[in-house]
Batch of 2 targets.
Target 1
Amino acid sequence: MTTWYEDAFRPGSEIRGKWNGRVYVVERLLGAGSNGVVALVRRGTSRFALKAGRETVDHQSEINSLHALSLTATTFKHFLVEVDDMIVQDREVPFFVMRYIEGVRVSDYIHKHGQDWIYVIGSNLLKKLTELHRCGYVFGDLKIENMIVSKYGHVDLIDFGGMTSKGRAIKQLTEVYDRGFWKAGERVAEESYDLFSFAILMMKVLDVRDRFQNIQHSLPQNREVEQLYPILRDSRAAARIAPFLQRALNGHWQSSEEAYQYWKRLVADQKLTPSPLNFPWLKICFAASLLLFCATVYIYW
């Protein structure tokens, strides 16, 4: 069965905005879900992420939130590039264009560079959430799939479909990251809601024995936060940040700023620093410069 977007988002196809008239060339599909399809596109030499969706109400809600964020003096400034409609199968489909952020999933980054990088990544993610919360929003659907990690543990959020104004009911979630799923709180857009999801995300990344797979399928009446505590002892990296994670799981903080400061103190007190990234070319350059220096000394001595 052909999906509504299959032809429109084939690599090399063009997407033309009905109102603004800008043309984007599709490079590849980045993802597709219940609330829309996202593709990597280019206009001239610039690359963007383009999201289209048929659920007009949800789509417009996400646009409104991104527009507000794009006007703030934060790292989200100018995140939203433009909004328009496209014609697919004789039907208008709304889309919006965002900055494209290149990177990998946090689990892939940790697998490649080592678990100690979780301290840097966690700090950068908390900083990003704090910015968002100051603007009056909660991310809502924080999970591994909705964040990107790039060089030196830099973090970006990439899907804002669950972003909700503070005080309202969470509008989009993934059960295992949801505190309501674990009977640990209500599904209300509070900073503590994102912090709970943050703790689950950190634990899933560091879950070396894949315990989540069994725990999340337990009977609802038996499911509780205490089931997650053994995961904190499964790896050295998880054990070191266990004091933070337990507090986040139990709703200890009402403010992400307070949580962020605690994380920084915890990492600093334990001197938790990641192993240096392995760049072979640095060794080659150093060896070459050493040889050049020796040759120069020999010639001019």
Note: The domain at 14-99 is CATH 3.30.200.20 (Phosphorylase Kinase; domain 1).
Target 2
Amino acid sequence: MAINPRGADLKQFLAEDPGGPVVMLNLLRFADGGRESYATYSRAVEQTFLPRYGGEVVYAGDGGTPLVAEEGQAWDAVLLVRYPSREAFSAMVADPEYQEFTQHRTQALTEAVLQPTAAR
């Protein structure tokens, strides 16, 4: 199961760019003990990389029991992160310094959804 964006996915992400800011919906399911590893990743992202690329966390929260969902569709955490553009997001994930921290995210998660959204 994919945890981190792959090259082909990023290429399509950029090709479908409607222009303007993008808000990334992050749905996260943690491995046992994964919250600590994710916290290490999250601190680096919030303190270094989001400011560097103009991003900001809009919302971060723990998931609860779903009201409407199929079996297995509950998530441990939900984040909304705004970037000024799809290019800014792609530049961040390509940053060699950022890539050093992705191991913490990869170790922390068993499943993830990273869904770009655009305002209407």
Note: The chain has one domain: 7-63+75-117.
